[in-house]
Amino acid sequence: MQQHIEVVLADGVTPVNVALTARSAQRLQLVPGKEVLVLIKAPWIRLGDEGEPGDNALSAQVSAIEEGEEMSEVLLTLSGGETLCATLSAAQLAQQPLRPGDAVTACFSAEQAIIATLI
User: Fold this and answer.
1) What three-state secondary structure class fits 18?
2) d(CA 72, CA 93)
3) Please, are residues 102 and 62 in contact by the beta-carbon 8 Å criterion?
């Protein structure tokens, strides 16, 4: 059985919704206030304008773009200072031209976020 939990990032205000099984939550000994690490693979992060659908839609600013032949890395800074990395294909980057300083929304589903703890 899957459940959704909300993790508040280090800034103390930004929520991230994470889906996991009850068994995983129990195995990780999750309790309110426990420090966890939330991992999201870069290809799972979609970039869009405000209002982009998804369990998680985080306001961010493009801090850098490392262009590659096939895939590019887009480094994002959240309002609390946390960094996300999204990867976009050359075609996606051509369709959605981005520059450092641009405001974007980083979207991903709760099923694409992974929690890690030091048990």
Assistant:
1) strand
2) 8
3) yes
Q: How many percent of the chain have pLDDT more than 90?
A: 76
pLDDT in tens, 32-84: 999 999 999 999 999 976 545 568 999 999 999 999 999 999 999 998 899 99
Q: How many CA atoms lie within 13 A of 52 on its CB side?
A: 16
The residue count of the chain comes to 119
Strand-pair partners of 37? 116
Angle at 95 between CA 61 and CA 47, to 5 degrees: 35
Cβ-contact 108, 17 below 8 angstroms: no
Give residue for tokens 């939990």.
5
- Give the position of tokens 């890395």: 73
Instruction: Specify burial of residue 39 (Cβ count, 10 A radius: 0-12, 13-18, 19+).
Output: exposed
Flag whether pLDDT at 23 surpasses 60: yes
Residue 115 pLDDT > 90, yes or no?
yes
| Cβ atoms of 11 and 80 closer than 8 Å | yes
